[in-house]
Amino acid sequence: MPNWELRNxxxxxxxxxxxxxVGFTVGxxxxxxxxxxxxxxxxxxFLHEASHxxxxxxxxxxxxxxxxxxxxxxxxxTRGGIYWVILPAGYLGSSFWGMALIxxxxxxxxxxxxxxxxxxxxxxxxxxAKNKSLQKFVHALVMVLAGExxxxxxxxxxx
Length: 159
Prior knowledge:
Elements: H1 12-31, H2 38-58, E1 62-68, E2 74-79, H3 83-104, H4 108-128, H5 132-154
Antiparallel strand pairs: 1-2
Helix pairs in contact: 2-3, 4-5
């Protein structure tokens, strides 16, 4: 018979982790249809479309443009490349970028490096963006991320 008692199953850190996952899951479900999560949804759409673009470039295609719309939709216009690689790259890429950002967040240095890479990617998108809503969103996001990333270096440390 399996033992289903949960006594002594987890140490303090594991309980905190499980509590955080449950708390964030409930918070996301409660706030899903509010405007508070819209920036995160747009980042996800951006990463989805950027993954299509990266797959196009890796298969020797040309990216004509990327659009991310305020209604959380998006499109990447490509020419050439291998379509059976480009098409699933959006979903696979979104999952990959999410995993990479979660792993990078485990250490302050890697989180700063990931933020810097994300800022660089957003600046590249400014040259590919064809719609004004994406350009405005990217400008705002770059300003916030750069302020967070480089603002820490400007604040003097006190012992």
